[in-house]
Design a protein that fits this description.
elongated, alpha+beta, Arc Repressor Mutant, subunit A
C-alpha cells in the first residue's frame, strides 16, 4: 500500500521486483486489496504484451492512513 500511496500507478512487474514476491503470492495479496476496494486495476496492452497497473482508491488511502495512525498511537503509548 505504501508504494501505491506515493505513486499514481504501479505496474505488477514493479511490485514483483520491489517486493521480491512470486506471481501467485503477489496476485493473491492484490486480489484481497481489490476485494476490499483499496485498489483499482488498469489492464492494457503495450504492443502485444499485457500490462496490469494498480492505484490506490480513496477507501484504500483512508484505510492506510488509519493504520499508520494506529501504529503511531501504539508507539506513543509504549514510551
Amino acid at each position: 500500500m505504501s508504494m501505491l500511496v506515493v505513486n499514481e500507478w504501479v505496474e505488477f512487474t514493479t511490485f514483483k521486483e520491489m517486493l521480491a514476491l512470486q506471481d501467485g503470492t503477489l496476485a493473491s495479496h492484490l486480489k484481497k486489496l481489490e476485494a476490499n476496494d483499496f485498489i483499482k486495476i488498469k489492464k492494457e496492452f503495450i504492443g502485444r504484451k499485457p500490462k496490469t497497473s494498480y492505484a490506490v482508491t480513496e477507501v484504500g488511502r483512508k484505510a492506510f492512513t488509519d493504520h499508520l495512525d494506529a501504529l503511531e498511537e501504539i508507539i506513543r503509548q509504549s514510551k
